[in-house]
Amino acid sequence: MFWTVFIAAIGLALFIEGAAYALFPEGMRKALVAVLALPAAKLRFAGLTAAGFGALLIFMALG
């Protein structure tokens, strides 16, 4: 079961990211340029926050 859920989660992440680039290419380009201007500490905090929230969602979904 673990691998099925893991592969489904990777597929969902790729789908969401791919859809964002397909539907809003200019917006994604602007977002990437804006991210380049941020200091590393803010990027690290945002990444850790997103990873923690994602882990919480997985924990809640799988019980």
Automatic annotation (TrEMBL):
InterPro entries: DUF2065 (IPR019201)
Keywords: Membrane, Transmembrane, Transmembrane helix
Transmembrane regions: 6-24, 45-62
Top-level taxonomic group: Bacteria
Protein name listed in UniProt: DUF2065 domain-containing protein
Organism of provenance: Gimibacter soli
